[in-house]
Amino acid sequence: MHPRLTLAELAEHPLRQRLNNEFHARPPTPLAGSALVSHLVFKHSATKIPAARENLSKLCQGHVCNSIESSESHLVIETGAFRMRWELHTEFSSYTFFRDLAVGETLPADATAFDAVHPEWLAGIPGKLMVATQVELRSTSEISPESVLAGFAPTGRTMVGALIGDGSAQIFTDFRIDNGFSRFLVLNRDMTERQAGRTVQRLVEIESYRMMAMLGLPVAKEVGNWLYSGETQLAELMERIGQARSPEDERSVLAALSGLAAEVENSVARTTFRFGASRAYHGLVMQRIEELRESRLPGLPTLQEFMQRRLQPAMHTCEAISRRQEELSGRVARNSQLLRTRVDIELERQNQELLGQMNSRAKLQLRLQETVEGLSVVVLTYYGSQLVQYLAKGTKELHHVNPDIVTAISIPVIAGIVAWGTRRMRKKLAAEEAGTH
Question: DSSP character for 95?
Answer without folding.
Answer: E
